[in-house]
Amino acid sequence: MKVALVGCGAIGAVLAQAMAEHRVEAELVSVFDLSRERAERLSALFEKKPEVAAGMEEVLSSEAELVIEAASVAAARELLLPALSSGKDVLLLSVGAIADVEFLKRVEETARRNRRQVHIPSGAVGALDALKSAREAELTEVKLVSTKRPEALEGAPYLAERGISLHGLKERKVLFSGTAREAIAGFPANANVAIAVSLAGLGVENTRVEIVAEPGARRNVHEILARGSFGELYFRVENLPSPENPRTSYLAALSAISTLRRLGAPLQVGT
Ligand SMILES: NC(=O)c1ccc[n+]([C@@H]2O[C@H](COP(=O)([O-])OP(=O)(O)OC[C@H]3O[C@@H](n4cnc5c(N)ncnc54)[C@H](O)[C@@H]3O)[C@@H](O)[C@H]2O)c1
Fold it and tell me: Is 222 designated active site?
């Protein structure tokens, strides 16, 4: 499979390394980053070097069958519809891009019309397979609790609007409790996990989210609690940061590799 990569940061670098070492069956033909230097650094990892694109248009006109988006919500919004319209599948990391229900509908319609697909890796969380199974019957409750050190939450619009400072916080504090839609508006940097859980389960209006600050926390912890006719689910992951970007969980980069591997695999494991 021929692929293009948009975004050569923490996740892009881990993915490119896996392709360069032939750990996944994918040929990288085009790389793009706003920082040309980063794109060139990744291209240099390969024996058969992928073209360093000068802009998104070059990625869209490349021979890639799949575009991996590992850049930003803005890049994903710019890329999704034209990529699908030009016959390419998309592997989407910046899931926050489809938080908006109207935009999500357009993405789905465009994908359907062009017989293309958008692949969304589990990212920094898990249990999405069980939520998807559970919602085939009655899924009554899904709650996500994300716990991070205060520094990782600093600057969130929700805190700024209320004049809340986390400076000098001594003990664990629940900062926010509301729907996934409200969480995304107030804590956009936390949007990816909340959106992925919402898409797998009950949607942004019916998924509850709690955001907790814990001074000194070394790991980003995500917990999912769900109930329904299947029974009950409790999932917890303690994420270590990715070696290149302390804001990104290493598991998110690994989940992108795993998704890429699944696309070409004869055996599909998990729902
Ligand atoms: N799904 C998940 O669970 C999950 C987890 C972590 C990160 N993410 C998301 O994945 C994306 C990449 O994460 P990362 O840690 O690799 O980020 P990063 O900041 O390390 O790297 C992003 C790279 O994309 C480039 N970039 C930004 N906007 C661009 C644009 N419009 N066009 C081209 N290049 C652009 C930047 O220059 C940078 O090199 C982010 O949007 C992040 O929020 C998702």
Answer: yes
Q: For the stretch 164-175, what's the b/e string if a residue is b when 16 or more beta carbons lie within 10 angstroms of its beta carbon?
A: eebeebeeeeeb
Quote the ligand 1 centre to 94 CA distance (angstroms): 7
pLDDT, tens only, 12-69: 999 999 999 999 999 999 999 999 999 999 999 999 999 999 999 999 999 999 999 9
Report field, pTM of the whole predicted structure over 0.90: yes
Domains of the chain (ranges; CATH) run 2-123+251-263 (3.40.50.720), 128-239 (3.30.360.10)
Rounded Cα–Cα distance for residues 69 and 93 (Å):
6
Ligand 1 shell residues, CB under 6 Å: 6-12, 32-35, 38, 70-75, 93-95, 123-124, 192-193, 245, 248-249, 252
Q: How far is the CA of 179 from the centre of ligand 1 (A)?
A: 25
Q: Report the side by side order of strands in the sheet with 66-69.
A: 51-52, 27-32, 2-6, 66-69, 89-92, 118-119
Q: What is the C-alpha to C-alpha distance for residues 166 and 173, in angstroms, rounded to an integer?
A: 10
